Amino acid sequence: MAGIKDKSLLLKEKERIKKKMLEEKRRVNFFFTDFGTFVRKQKVTGLAIAFVLGMISSDLVKAIVNDLIMPLIGIILPNNDWQAFVLTLGPLKLALGHFMSVFINFLIILLVVYLIIRWMTKLNLVES
User: Which CATH code is given to the segment(s) 45-128?
Assistant: First the structure.
């Protein structure tokens, strides 16, 4: 009789574990299904790609400014040291070289964003 009870308990425990595993599998499947729906609805993939491209293009813009544009501006400034150019007016010191570098970076990034949005509008990817 004891052997039958032990087998019965083992079968019940096995069934309980099986149900728990099935429930856990459903939770995992729901998570991935829900996550996939979220990614599609919110267009997270596009946002992630835009973020990575933004980071990469930032380096490109800095290189364009520092290596192509600013050397031309450096010809105009004394000693060709445009980043260190400081305008001193009495006790006031204005770091115009650094400001010009940041401002030109901003303008180039603004131009790139404008061109991308204009291109996307032509392809009807975004509303104007």
Answer: 1.10.1200.120
0.70 surpassed by pTM:
no
For the chain, the domains span: 1-42, 45-128
Name the token pair of 70: 């600013």
pLDDT tens sequence across 9-67: 777 888 888 888 888 878 777 777 877 777 677 677 777 777 877 777 777 777 877 78
- Decide: 61 and 112 in contact? Cβ < 8 Å: yes
**Residues 74 and 82: beta-carbon distance below 8 Å:** yes
Residue 78 near residue 96 (C-beta atoms within 8 A): no
* Residue 107, both tokens: 């303008």
